Amino acid sequence: MTTRRAVSVAALALLLAASAPARNKLTPEERIEIMRGLTAEFATAKIGLPRSKKSLPLTADGKIGDREKWDEAAREFGPAARSGDLVQITKVEVDDDQIKLEINGGLRTGRKWYERIEMGAGNRTTPIGQSGSPTLGTLLVVEFPEGVPPVKAGELKKMLRPVLDFEKRSATENYVENLPEPIQAAIREKRIIEGMDKEQVLLAAGRPRGKSRETVDGLELEDWIYGLPPGKITFVTFNGSKVVKVKESYAGLGGSTAEPLTPR
User: Fold this and answer.
1) Which of 113, 137, 168 is the last residue before a domain boundary?
2) N or C, which terminus of the chain has less Cβ within 10 Å?
């Protein structure tokens, strides 16, 4: 009787182990950690990166996944970065089986509908997007055929070493370490605050979606716009090289805006 019971217990344990789902999917918190840890990060290109409208595939160990696609993009659009160039990750998307990385704003060749929308108050309006001129960026996609494993941003950076070197940033890191603590904190938290200069804004939030300039009361002002409708739109106003105002609005599909809700 004791032997039969032991066999039954062992069989049940094996059945439960076989039926338990493998831990091979990212949690929402892990997805957010990857996006926060990579967005606006700088790296040195280890190989030439072609400009491309379509995502250029990479394997999970950072190697070129389809050389023909890379070569075709290079012939059609030319280089987005050469070996040794400093590049920036401006957008990160995490799907079930791949992680997409937008480099230097990606490659835009046409004008989108939202770039014709203008927002503002009174006599002052600002276009949401910039002109449809192409940018010198590209798109990379790290493919995981078995699903994206529970990996952190730091581990993903190590995977990408054959293509992007995130360690060769001593000059940038030393620069940040010598900034005032409030600006250091804002850069770490990917926030924009008044008093930053343009380089610090790029470190904190990456390249803007659009820019506009105007003269107000004799002052030459420049707005950088982040975000797309529908959703949060952030206007960063520079007087010269310094941020003098940061304003957030929420835009619907029709371009109508509303002030952010005040926390209670």
Assistant:
1) 168
2) C
